[in-house]
Amino acid sequence: MQPETLFDKLWNSHLVQAQTDATPAIIYIDLHLVHEVTSPQGFDMLREKGIAVRSPGRTLATLDHSTPTLPAGDDGQRPYITAQAQRQVQTLRDNCHEFGIELHDWDSPSRGIVHVMGPELGATQPGMTIVCGDSHTSTHGAFGALAFGIGTTEVGHVLAKQCLLQNKPKSMRVNVEGKLAKDVTAKDLALNIINYLGMNGGTGFVIEYAGEAIRDLDMESRMTLCNLTIEAGARAGMIAPDATTIEYLRGRAKVPQGDAFDQAAEKWLQLASDPDAVFDSEITLDGTSMRPTITYGTDPGMSVAIGEPVPLATNATQEKALQYMGFEGGQSMSERQVDVVFVGSCTNGRISDLRAAANVLRGRRVADHVRMLVVPGSENIRKQAEREGLHETILAAGAEWRLPGCSMCIAMNGDLVPPGKTAVSTSNRNFEGRQGKGSRTLLASPETAAASAVMGRVAGIADLEPVQEVT
Amino acid sequence: MRAFTKLSGPILVLEQENIDTDQIIPARFLTATDFHGIGEHLFADWRLDADGEPIPAHRLNQPSARHSPILVGGHNFGCGSSREHAPHALLGFGFRVVISSQIADIFRSNSQNVGLLPVVLEADQHASLLQMDGEEITVDLEACEVTVRASDGVEQIWPFTIDPFARHCLLRGLDRIDFLDQAEDAIAAYEEKR
Lengths: 471, 194
What we know:
The structure holds 2 protein chains of 2 kinds.
Chain A: H1 6-13, E1 15-17, E2 25-28, E3 31-34, H2 40-49, E4 59-62, H3 83-99, E5 102-104, H4 114-121, E6 129-132, E7 146-149, H5 152-161, E8 163-166, E9 170-177, H6 186-197, E10 205-210, H7 212-215, H8 219-227, E11 236-238, H9 243-249, H10 259-269, E12 281-286, E13 293-295, E14 303-305, H11 316-325, E15 340-343, H12 345-348, H13 351-361, E16 371-374, H14 379-387, H15 390-396, E17 400-401, E18 422-425, E19 440-443, H16 446-455
Parallel strand pairs in A: 3-4, 3-6, 4-5, 6-7, 9-10, 9-12, 10-11, 15-16, 15-18, 16-17, 18-19
Antiparallel strand pairs in A: 1-2, 2-8, 13-14
Helix pairs in contact in A: 2-5, 6-8, 13-15, 13-16
Chain B: E1 6-14, H1 21-24, H2 44-47, E2 70-73, H3 85-93, E3 97-100, H4 105-114, E4 117-120, H5 123-130, E5 136-140, E6 145-149, E7 155-159, H6 164-172, H7 177-182, H8 184-193
Parallel strand pairs in B: 1-2, 2-3, 3-4
Antiparallel strand pairs in B: 1-5, 5-6, 6-7
């Protein structure tokens, strides 16, 4: 038999109808994640056609994008940014009720950002095909799933048929060899890969990450890396399931339990790419040379190691980016005053991210001129963080502790960066205006974000003074 | 979906590379539950001032912009989020075709699903078009050709390739879900097998 990649195995096992010269393949979708922003028109299509959701049991919904991160007021009303945002949330609630879909509403103990909640519940499993009307669906590839973002018309297709029309993308393997330095996080790793590939280097490809540095990553780090795959233009990123994957999933609510889990795990471990499998493209990077990294421009590929100056612009795109960001080529990044710091999002809003930020903040203060927002990725993470007392550390440092949601990553709920202000953000996009009209975003790890909050300027953890022990 | 066969009209050039979907339609306009009127928010942060008034000098606010059915964007057009609001906003503004030298994957399939024709040309052809703002060209999906008149007056015909199924659906105005409907037996058989 022809050796197969992880991607080949997933693709072939989900083929309902093969691709031909004239028609795309039909692939079956195991899990469809739904949120309030990209689904309403999909449900409308069902109503127009008078049909039901084909597989409600394979559909899982949450509220995350348009939701306020401040609690309800004394009147019990949640502070939605607009009546329209509130209506959008109500529309999802109505649609889930009408079509019999499991929705994690405000009262759910598991509500969270769609790409945080799915894995947490164990709804995300190896070997699955997973889609969502959201480009960061690539996150779920961390489990050895084929997971990618789709548009709203396709949301309708999956609701109606549990299938998707797709031409098979090309495959790329990105090997990261060697061990990452202790202060290099998955965010830094991802920014380095995107910097190497460019923001369109992955267009047309599904990426499999491999190599020692990847195998060493825990699941939350793998999710951060796969999440950011779309920022290199590839719709999906994936990592072969291994013992780390299995142990993360064991005992979660939606995975098989007991012997059935071990049987499933055995199958999952066989999904890895065959040793002789051939990729359409393959690159190898040296993980040992990577350093903590931060972006300076208006796409996630424009990044430098912390401490390095802003690069000189070599083309019109970079010139425009520097102009928007208010940087001069050659200028030291660490001169830049930071106004806002955001820790959260489907990229870096998990418990390990909050712990990392809290570790930096412990015994320190956020600089007076900095507004820092810490937004857990889910209710489960919020509760875990509060059990550990992380919220107390965060609040004591002068940062805000919010309710779970996408918040300032997409800035459509009212959490935003004012025009012209600079944010160090653990989110995924530094596009012009992404965090609010005129906002200037520097993407970095939670460690770097917290260090910058303390220093009040762009800084890494190496720039921090040691905390004075209280005796 | 509205069919697309052939169209002639002046092009509107936005030469910036990597025009992402947050530029095409900023996130704060995504709270609507339908796509009605979304064209008015197209490129809102480029086109409109802090009070929401059009900035007269912007290319998209020139009177001719509303009569340009063809947008020529810089390399890697449509990168970023999966929001289908982006092609809907372009359609709502009056565009029927987007041309670039590279178009991002999700934006491309979204465009094909909603009746906006994405056309990818060779780098040199694309570079020529970037210098031809306002000039009339013809996009023929039946023939898969773009016809331009170069500065010396000579007509040039540039063939392009497009996914055959997307072309089939666009030419006839077919919703792609009809193809899934026709595959009902195969879908049911697959579900049975699992």
